[in-house]
Amino acid sequence: MSDWDADAVRARLRAKAMRYELRAPLSEVEIRAFEAEHGIRLPEEYRSFVATVGDGPAGPHYGLMPLVTPRPEADDWAVDGEWEDDRRPGRLAAPCPIREPRPFDRNRRFDESEGLTLGTLVLAEQGCGVYSRLIVGGPLAGQVWHLDQDFGTCLPESAGFRAWYVEWLEK
Question: In this structure, which long-range contacts are made by residues 37-42, counting pairs with CB atoms below 8 Å and at least 24 apart in sequence?
Fold first, then answer.
């Protein structure tokens, strides 16, 4: 059961300067099919948001990525590649290697073999190869982290999807 007030969220979005809109919420059937296909259970705050409020795009940074259907304008943007990568078999169910923050270090570069994005779902692009990602399993499940894939930086953004989204909504 969701404690999201979808009408209040939409009203707040209409009041913002950019007049953001949301896609329709996903059905329980669509969400369960996604979870079954990827062998995961989505963190409850995010799951209830897409089931009750909507499936993007209104959201932080360059917008909330949709869960099931690619963005209609998807093209060669890096975030669309991230979205597709997340949906490759086994990626979301894989253990997330993130255990603690890793601050920016200009001498370090992202090492693909570290698999920092495994077990995470891209929520939003921040620009320049930086993403807000939702950890979907393991001890940090439900948290939103800032991942800079150029430098391998990972920092917590929020203890949960709801706080992350509401903080943006109230700005």
Answer: 38/87, 38/91, 38/92, 38/93, 39/90, 39/92, 39/93, 40/92, 40/93, 40/136, 40/137, 42/67, 42/121, 42/136
User: pLDDT digits over 32-45, tens only?
Assistant: 999 999 999 999 99
With H, G, I as helix, E, B as strand and everything else as coil, classify residue 156: strand
Does residue 168 contact residue 157 with C-beta atoms inside 8 Å?
A: no
3-state SS class at 79: helix
Element (H, E) at 1: none
| Most confident residue range from 66-70, 112-116, 161-165 | 161-165
- Whole-prediction pTM: 0.87
CA distances from 25 to 3, 52, 85 (A): 14, 6, 23
The alpha carbon dihedral of 75, 123, 83, 125 has a sign of positive
β-pairing verdict for 130-135 and 153-158: unpaired
Instruction: Please state, in angstroms and rounded to a whole number, the distance separating the CA atoms of residues 147 and 51.
Output: 26
